[in-house]
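Q: You know discrete backbone vocabularies at least as well as I do. I have my own habits and do not want them to colour yours. No explanation is needed for now; the record alone will do.
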Amino acid sequence: MRVARTLEREIRAGKFSRGDRLASENALVRRFSVSRNTVRKGLEELTRQGLITTRGGIGSFVTYGGASIDDALGWTMALSRSADVVETRVLRIQRAACPMASAFLDVTPDDFLHVDRIRLLEGGGVGISLERSRSPWRAAFDDVLANGLVDGSLNETFASIGLAIDHGEEWAEVMPALPEEDARAMGRAATEPMLRLRRVTRTAAGEVIEFVESLLDPRRFGLHLEFRR
């Protein structure tokens, strides 16, 4: 873990760029004064985190790009602009009640458009994000139930019916463990901690457009805030 943590800090700090080759196993053995097996276990941990990939007989290469992911336009658009190959699967699009969203937003009636999506890297496998979107029901959403999202994007869908996001709020917290249902959906252990984001977006008039709860792999997502006077 010491080998993995040290190399992780260097990768995330930008000492290595995407595609750079790490030092050889022999060099890492000398650097950390550990066995080759220990070095390999450290590299396996970095591989599990998606920070490197190892090619047999060639070496280990950095796969982490270090770029910030801006979710202002939604995770689908943000991730599609990143260097990673992302697959998005729609788990559910339906009209239904959502007591959690209704209570959080303090709105009535309890009638929402539900859009649940999961995102996976490299064509499948373990999910890196699980998103639940709840939008107070509008008659224009009938077309979404029939034809799906516009270009696969909720924000494009909102824009197509004249809903423009003006402002909002976002909350971040760490979940020490995943609910069993979410763990199964993401192909993860229930004991894995996740970053939980909750966001509410509104029109200029203050009307709620969307409430979103996102569960994110903390090894791939972080929180970056900018402040101005």
Notes: DSSP finds eight helices and eight strands in the chain. The domain at 2-62 is CATH 1.10.10.10 (Arc Repressor Mutant, subunit A). The chain has a mean pLDDT of 84.
